[in-house]
Design goal:
Blueprint lengths: L2 H16 L12 H13 L3 H21 L4 H13 L3 H14 L4 H13 L3 H14 L6 H14 L3 H14 L4 H13 L3 H14 L4 H11 L1
Helix pairs in contact: 2-3, 2-4, 3-4, 4-5, 4-6, 5-6, 6-7, 7-8, 8-9, 9-10, 10-11, 10-12, 11-12
Length: 222
Amino acid sequence: MTDRKKIVFILCTVLLFLAAPGFSQEGRPDALRSYRTGRDLEARGRLQDARPYYDEAITICLSEINQNAANMDSYTVLTWALQRQNRYAEVIEWGQRGLRVNANDFRVIETMGEASFYLDQYAQSLRYMQRYVDGNPQGERVSVAFFFIGEIYRLQQKYRHADIAYTTAVRLEPGLALWWYRLGTVRESVGEYPNAAEAYEQALTLNPNYREASEGLVRSRR
């Protein structure tokens, strides 16, 4: 191999290395890129393939926090990656550490609200979610926060409160059949059958094979 070919080969190898999912254009480990790669794989049903990328994101974030304990981006991506792996107690642990650095980082606050919900800590989850929607009303996760608020109130049998939360969630993001179905269930629970039927119909428009929504529609019409 000539010297020129060797140089070209080395340059190509370096460029391929820099383009790898876990590295930024500067060649540094990129936790967010690793996380997003894992998330995209999981969205395509490839959870086993996604896990190494989540692990990589976690490792990078822990290293970054060790070097700079005030890096809120690291806490954010770390809690996201832990959440994807159902490591909810660790989400709370690292989220609390992050909020000691910046008490108003709403990315971490929302994630902790979800983790608390999955740990059945509904009162704590509600506090985080309400804090998120009150402090960041234009945030990209506001619809999700309202859905979780609805879930908590539904489980607490506060159906009127749940109705308001679910209604807000579907107004912000109308394309999720589950959300419309949940709205139908709480309306049905308080005897608002025409309104429940409307919500079930919306769920079935989005997912015609939604058996529970179909059964709810039959009950409400009856």
